[in-house]
Each structure stands twice: as structure tokens, then as C-alpha cells.
């Protein structure tokens, strides 16, 4: 099954009501904004999607709702499980629901060694025909997927991409030097996305796109079209917002940004709590300062990226 691992893939937030129930109306409204802005794929159930607190039944609803709206835009489901058998079950369910690809984290809770991690990835990939993107995030999940590990994974044809979230931009060059175009590389850290795109990354699994989809897609397309000065101008404006993506409370921060931008709400599911007091005022100041200076964008949707 083919999937073009390039472009902007929003890591969509999961929308909840004030009572903590799934808010499909709010989810759909935000998703329509993403699609209108020109995103290239959708990632559901990631860290930003509060994967640890949504049920399998809710994942099914989210996947099927996204597919009903997305048309030809691929919907990718994240798998973040502690047990290999459960990860395999989730992969099979994702295919049944109609997802076009998987994003796969290393085993959760247990810090697997290199051999265990590679075996886990291979077992899940072997259980499905869906294309797989490995999520390499040693900062938050304490397991680094090294180049030697990718060399072992290269023999599995449906392991096709990496969400590169090590926060080390040189990993893009190392991956390309060693593997050429065997693996598509998508930046997973908002604050270094333009740098990694310039170094050859194929795409961007983005966070602040949830609140600012047009600006995110504009940066991607302008950068890939060689219009670096225009892209840099937007990126510099965006940076204070992008820094919200690298905080432990990225979910609350980005949902607050969605609310201020008019395409979401602040509601999270416990044990997370919405922001209060000085912290909320500080983040609101970052968001509202940026909104007051929101840049005019060129006609980025007319740019064709090969």
C-alpha cells in the first residue's frame, strides 16, 4: 500500500467537551481547517492527540470521522503500546478502519534495548500491509532509534519513514548519507522544522499547525520551492508559538492556541487540566502577541512541490 510521506502532517489534537467526552463536532471543524489550508496527511492519536487517555473505540470514531472528511488525504494512526500483541492488534484494527498508514512508537513504559526495540518494530510491521513511520523521540520516550537500528529495519519494506524528533538536525544528514532515499524523513519538532526541510527532510509532522495551519503549510511549500526569504519571514514570526511544542504541557498550550485562533477549545482529559493563573496568562500573552502581528501570506497553495 503506497503513501507519500512528504508535506505537512498535522498531529491532530483530540477534541473533548467540558465534561471530558469526545467532541467530534469540534474535531471535524478543526480538521476542515487543516484540509482547507492544504495539509498533506493527518496523524491521529499521537502525543498531542492525548493517546494515553483515549480508548480503542474512540480511536475508531476519530479515524472513521477523519476519513469521511479527508478525501484523498491519508489518515495515519499512531500506535503507542506497552505490549507487542496489543500493538499488533491496534495495527490490524487501523487497517480495518481504513487508515492509510501507521506511526509507531517504541514500546511504552519499558525502556527496551536496541534488540528488543527492533524486534518490536519488525513484529508490528510484519503484521500489517500498511506503511509504517517510526517515531524517533529519545528526548520524551527515552529510546533512541539509531542508524544501526534503521539499517536492520531497512529490510522491512513497509517501514518507510521516520518522524525525526531527536532534536538533532544533523540526524537528517546522517540518515541521507547512510540510506539515501530509503527512508522518508519528517521533522517532528516544530522549532527546527525549517532547518530540517532545508537539509533534505521530506516533510513535517507538526504541532502548532493545529492552531495555525495556513502558516505551517506556507513555510513548508515556500521552503521546498526555494523561496527561503519568504519562508524565513513567516518562520521568525512563528517561532515564539513553535516553542510551545517542546514543553511537557504542549497539549494544553496548543489547545489554548487553537481556542484563541478560533478553531478549537481548551478542554483536555484528566489527569491533564486546563491552564490557570500566571501560567495561562503567560501563554496567552505569547499567543495573542503573535495573533496581533499575524503575517500576510503569499499564494502558497499555487506552489507545486514535486
UniProtKB/TrEMBL annotation:
Coiled-coil annotated residue ranges, if any: none
GO terms assigned for molecular function: 4-hydroxy-tetrahydrodipicolinate synthase activity
Keyword Lyase (UniProt): yes
Keywords linked to the UniProt accession: Lyase
Residue numbers binding pyruvate: 205
Protein name: Dihydrodipicolinate synthase family protein
SMART domains in alphabetical order: DHDPS
Matching InterPro entries: Aldolase_TIM, DapA-like
